[in-house]
Structure formats: structure tokens, C-alpha cells
Design brief:
The chloroplastic ME isoform decarboxylates malate shuttled from neighboring mesophyll cells. The CO(2) released is then refixed by ribulose-bisphosphate carboxylase. This pathway eliminates the photorespiratory loss of CO(2) that occurs in most plants. By secondary structure, the protein is α/β, with parallel strands linked by helices. It contains 26 helices and 14 strands. The strands form 3 sheets. A 7-stranded mixed sheet has the order 8-7-6-9-10-11-14, sandwiched between helices. α15 links the parallel β4 and β5. α16 packs across α23. It is globular, with a radius of gyration of 26 Å.
């Protein structure tokens, strides 16, 4: 038996020898004889150094999700890369693999089981995972993202297999930049980060919120064509307020109360500085599912020093404004002709309200105050009015208008008489039968947008909206609903899914080398989305384009965002391409298999 000292000497000498034999791209399979015996012969208490010399070989190739093709390796590739005997003899095309995988997925009756199967596929065969998402986007989007991702986050500790992103916690204070260097990819262009405090409408899920950044970045690649290697999911763990998780022996995060105040701010500041130090000025940082009190502060603090985007505030606003602009063809008038009533005055509601106001300002000669008076908000205490201004949070104050106090939503609908009702409350079934009937009595075609996620938290269902309005409502929701038959006619609900916006928006920022996010970019994205709705869609009462065309939609959004960036002088990739749509399409990642030499 070798001593510990002699083991390390052998390992070091072999490491030095192999260091001169080439890197990962070499085609010879070099094994380190003796390393396995050293590990087996060392005692449990003896320190052991785990290390791998990685040279292209069949065994390693099959376990690398970036390059693995499974049964789609050709006969020639199997010989060239030492795969002979490691795979069954059948050779499949990628199309046959797609068919087989979808057949397997459809056997699962529980959406969470499909989610787990898709995540397992992503860890085994990256290109097949994204190929499925692109080809079957309408079927698989609700699986890899909302609503199923909500349940996945709730049960993340139980279904956790292997790390899919970077975990940064209070334990890493003072060395976050060093921790980032542990991530294997160095050319990062998009980061989606959460602290897990407000996951969808499910509350504080702490470290288990990692499912959100992982899901969002999967969509950046599948829907926007951003290469997976440049995407980094991050969860910042500062503890949790969730007592159930704190008592759960399988909880994977810090078991302590959530940090706040200076301790929290300092950790976030170190993280933001580390991102710029490691990845440069042009990396896009998307804040995701931060609680209201932090979401606004972080966006305001870093929007002038970093390329930052908050999907809950800005992404939701973009997709809703896009739906509103397209809905005008069905309900008539211009945006400034309508009155808007929001249920929910948090980051989503006020973000949407602000973007609507900006679009009205752009298209009319109204003042800021006049455009804002078109928009009313209801929070947990009733209608947001000027008499409450001193007690309101700062982001609600611009929407506090002169009006007598009104307690409930139904009373607010009767008092304000809105033509458009938007729900961002995070509380299910708030659009009651009486509320929908009141909207239908005021408007020939009331626009009802129940945006809260997941499905259980939606303010009303599609069936309720169509039935209670007697088929007059134009309806869109945050989570998907099936078509509804009412009075012999089929009604197809639209889905105001942020996935329409952020993948193309991010691609546009990357391809033009934007250094900051300007409000004009948000308006451009909304207008581009609205332009993709077809007459066929309008005929069915749909105010959003079909997801099956999502890459085309994303290319148009990316082109419009990039064009606006060049116009306002915030693009750094020069010269400007002559055809931005074609350039966007050429930048998109293809999930088709590549041939190996």
C-alpha cells in the first residue's frame, strides 16, 4: 500500500507529465493509473485530493451535456471518439430523439414529474433539451417555467439533483469575486439573480428560488437564442423568513432569519462590484423575484452604473403594454382614451403604470401629471388617493390622485369606471362575478388582464371572465388557460407572459453592446411585440402572438431594442449592422447537433 506522502508524489509527478501532453481537445484517452487505488487505499480520515485530467474520451464525452448526443453519435464519431461499446448499436437522428423524449414526457401525468425529467435532460444533453423547447414551446413552456416552476421551487430541496447555478451566501462575504471564479464559464453576458424573497406569488422560498434563474435563462436560450454558455443563474442566500423551510431538515439554504438593512445592502453591493470586475461593463444583470422594498431600491441604485433590468417591474410592464397596444384594435381608441384600474400596487403594478404613462406621453401632448391621472391603483387598503399620500410607499405616491376614499375593488370599479382592469395582486380570485359584471356593464368590450402567477393566484380564470361578461370581455392572463366554449363560440385567452419580452430584449442588448438600459428600450420592445399580432389572432380575440413564432418575435424585439440603443448613443458595438433583424437571427444559438471530427 502507498503512503499518503507517496500518493501525492505520484499524483503530482503524473500531473506534471500530463500537463505537457495537451488539453481537453486532445483525442487520446489518457488515464491516470494508480489514482483510483490511492483513493481506495486511503483511510476515511486521511485527506485526499480529488482531481481529474480531462482529455477528450468516450466516457467523458457522454457525461458532458454540452457535447453529448447520446444515440445520435454516428458510426464514424463513435470510432473517432472512443464511444464504441459505450452505446447501444442503434444510431438515432436528433428528430427521432425528439419524438422518443416527447413520448416519454407525455407519459407523466404530474407536471412536476415532467419538470424533473426536463431538468435531467438538460444535465445530460443540452442541445436536445433546447431543441425540444424550441420545437414544442407551447407545450413545454408551462413545464419549465410558470406555473410548474413555482411548485418546483417549493419542493426544490426534495428534487435537488446537482447544482445548476452559482450560490452566493452570507458565508461568502468579502470573497464573492473569488467565488465567481469557481464558475467554469468565463465569458458571461447574462446573469439572472434572485434572493428568493418573493418567488412568483408564493412568498419567501429562500435558497430554493434557484429554480427561477435557471428557468429564465433556459428561456433566454430557447426563445431568444442567447448561447447557454454565456448565461449564469445566481441565487443570493441571506436567509429566509419562511418558518417551514427553517424547520425542514432537507432545506438546502442557510437556516437563519433573512438578513436586512446594512448587512443585506453590503452583500448586494459586493456582488454587483464582483460582476463588473469578473465579467465587464456590458454583462446584463436581471433582477428576479426580489421583494418590493428591495426591487425598486436596487433598480434605482444600479441603473446608472450597471446594465440592469428588473423583469418583475420592467419586463412585466413591457409585455402588458404590448398587449394593451395590440388590444386597441379590438376595443378601439388610443391609449390615452382609456382609463386603467390596477388591483395591486407593488413592483409589477407600478412598473406597468409607469410604462403606460411614458407611452401616452410619447404619443400625446399631455403632461406627466395628466398621463398619470388616466391610471388608478387599488392596494390592500383600497383606492390609492391623495389623502393617503403621507402613509404611502414612495413608488405608490405618483399614483395617488384626488378622490374620496374607496375601500374595495368593486366600489373602485363603480367609482372610476375603468375600461381596462389589470390584476397584479398576487392574490387569487379577486376579480369576482360582481366585478366582472360591473366592468361589462360599463364597457362594450372590457379588457380584463389577470396577471398574477401561478395559476392558483390568478385574479380570475378565463372561463369566469368570458362567462360573467357574457362573452364580451377581452381576456389575458399571466399563466396559461385553455380555450373556453361559451354560448357556442370558442374564446382563446391570451397569455401576458414575460417570456415574450426578456429573451429578445436581452439579445438586443447583447448584440448592440448596450451599456445601460434606457426607458426608450422598453417602449421599443412593447411596440415590437404588438406589431407581431396577426389579423388571424385578432379574429379570435387574441392580443398576443402565438408562441410557436417566438424566435421570430424575439428577433424583431431584439432589432427594435438595438436600433433604439444606437439612436440614443448607448450601443458600443460599431458599426451598426445594416439589417438588424437578420443580424439578430444570425446571432441566435442553434440547438441542432454539430458534427464531430
Amino acid at each position: 500500500m502507498l503512503t499518503s506522502s507517496s500518493s501525492f508524489k505520484r499524483i503530482n509527478s503524473l500531473r506534471n507529465l500530463l500537463g505537457g501532453l495537451g488539453g481537453r481537445g486532445d483525442k487520446k484517452n489518457l488515464s491516470v493509473m494508480g489514482a483510483a487505488e490511492d483513493e481506495d487505499n486511503s483511510t476515511v480520515d486521511e485527506p485526499f485530493t480529488p482531481w481529474i485530467v480531462s482529455v477528450a474520451s468516450g466516457h467523458m464525452l457522454l457525461r458532458d451535456p454540452h457535447y453529448n448526443k447520446g444515440l445520435a453519435f454516428t458510426e464514424k464519431e463513435r470510432d473517432a471518439h472512443y464511444l464504441r461499446g459505450l452505446l447501444p448499436p442503434a444510431v438515432f437522428t436528433q428528430e427521432l430523439q425528439e419524438k422518443r423524449t416527447m413520448h416519454i414526457l407525455r407519459q407523466y401525468q404530474v407536471p412536476l414529474h415532467r419538470y424533473i425529467a426536463m431538468m435531467d435532460l438538460q444535465e445530460r444533453n443540452e442541445r436536445l433539451f433546447y431543441k425540444l423547447l424550441v420545437e414544442y414551446v407551447e407545450e413545454l413552456l408551462p413545464i419549465v417555467y410558470t406555473p410548474t416552476v413555482g411548485e418546483a421551487c417549493q419542493k426544490y430541496g426534495s428534487i435537488y439533483r446537482r447544482p445548476q447555478g452559482l450560490y452566493i451566501s452570507l458565508k461568502d462575504k468579502g470573497r464573492i469575486s473569488e467565488v465567481m471564479k469557481n464558475w467554469p464559464e468565463k465569458n458571461i453576458q447574462v446573469i439572472v439573480v434572485t434572493d428568493g424573497e418573493r418567488i412568483l406569488g408564493l412568498g419567501d422560498l429562500g435558497c430554493q428560488g434557484m429554480g427561477i434563474p435557471v428557468g429564465k435563462l433556459s428561456l433566454y436560450t430557447a426563445l431568444g437564442g442567447v448561447r447557454p454558455s454565456v448565461c449564469l443563474p445566481v441565487t443570493i442566500d441571506v436567509g429566509t423568513k419562511n418558518e417551514t423551510l427553517l424547520k425542514d431538515e432537507f432545506y438546502i439554504g442557510l437556516k437563519q432569519k433573512r438578513a436586512t438593512g446594512e448587512e443585506y445592502d453590503n452583500l448586494l453591493e459586493e456582488f454587483m462590484d464582483a460582476v463588473k470586475t469578473n465579467y465587464g461593463e456590458k454583462v446584463l444583470i436581471q433582477f428576479e423575484d426580489f421583494a418590493n422594498h428591495n426591487a425598486f431600491d436596487l433598480l434605482i441604485k444600479y441603473r446608472t452604473s450597471h446594465l440592469v433590468f428588473n423583469d418583475d417591474i420592467q419586463g412585466t410592464a413591457c409585455v402588458v403594454l404590448g398587449g394593451l397596444l395590440s388590444a386597441l384594435k379590438l376595443i378601439g381608441g388610443t391609449l390615452s382614451d382609456h382609463t386603467f384600474l390596477f388591483l395591486g400596487a407593488g413592483e409589477a403594478g407600478t412598473g406597468i403604470a409607469e410604462l403606460i404613462s411614458l407611452e401616452i406621453l410619447k404619443k400625446t401632448k399631455m403632461t406627466v401629471e395628466e398621463s398619470r391621472k388616466k391610471i388608478w391603483l387599488v392596494d390592500s387598503k383600497g383606492l390609492v388617493v391623495s389623502s393617503r399620500k403621507d402613509s404611502l410607499q414612495h413608488f405608490k405616491q405618483p399614483w395617488a390622485h384626488d378622490h374620496e376614499p374607496v375601500k374595495g375593488l368593486l366600489e373602485a370599479v363603480k367609482a372610476i369606471k375603468p375600461s381596462i382592469l389589470i390584476g397584479t395582486s398576487g392574490a387569487g380570485r379577486q376579480f369576482t362575478k360582481e366585478v366582472i359584471e360591473a366592468m361589462a356593464s360599463i364597457n362594450a368590450k372590457p379588457l380584463i388582464m389577470a396577471l398574477s402567477n401561478p395559476t392558483s393566484q390568478s385574479e380570475c380564470t378565463a372561463e369566469e371572465a368570458y362567462t360573467w361578461s357574457q362573452g364580451h370581455a377581452i381576456f389575458a392572463s399571466g399563466s396559461p388557460f385553455d380555450p373556453v366554449m361559451y354560448d357556442g363560440k370558442e374564446y382563446v385567452p391570451g397569455q401576458a407572459n414575460n417570456a415574450y419580452i426578456f429573451p429578445g430584449f436581452g439579445l438586443g442588448l447583447i448584440m448592440c453592446g448596450a451599456i445601460r438600459v434606457h426607458d426608450e428600450f422598453l417602449l421599443a420592445a412593447s411596440e415590437a411585440l404588438a406589431s407581431q399580432v396577426t389579423e388571424e389572432d385578432y379574429a379570435k380575440g387574441i392580443i398576443y402572438p402565438r408562441f410557436k413564432n417566438i424566435r421570430k418575435i424575439s428577433a424583431h424585439i431584439a432589432a427594435k431594442v438595438a436600433a433604439r440603443a444606437y439612436e440614443v448613443g448607448l450601443a458600443s458595438n460599431l458599426p451598426r449592422p445594416s439589417d438588424l433583424i437578420k443580424f439578430a437571427e444570425s446571432c441566435m444559438y442553434s440547438p441542432n447537433y454539430r458534427c464531430y471530427r
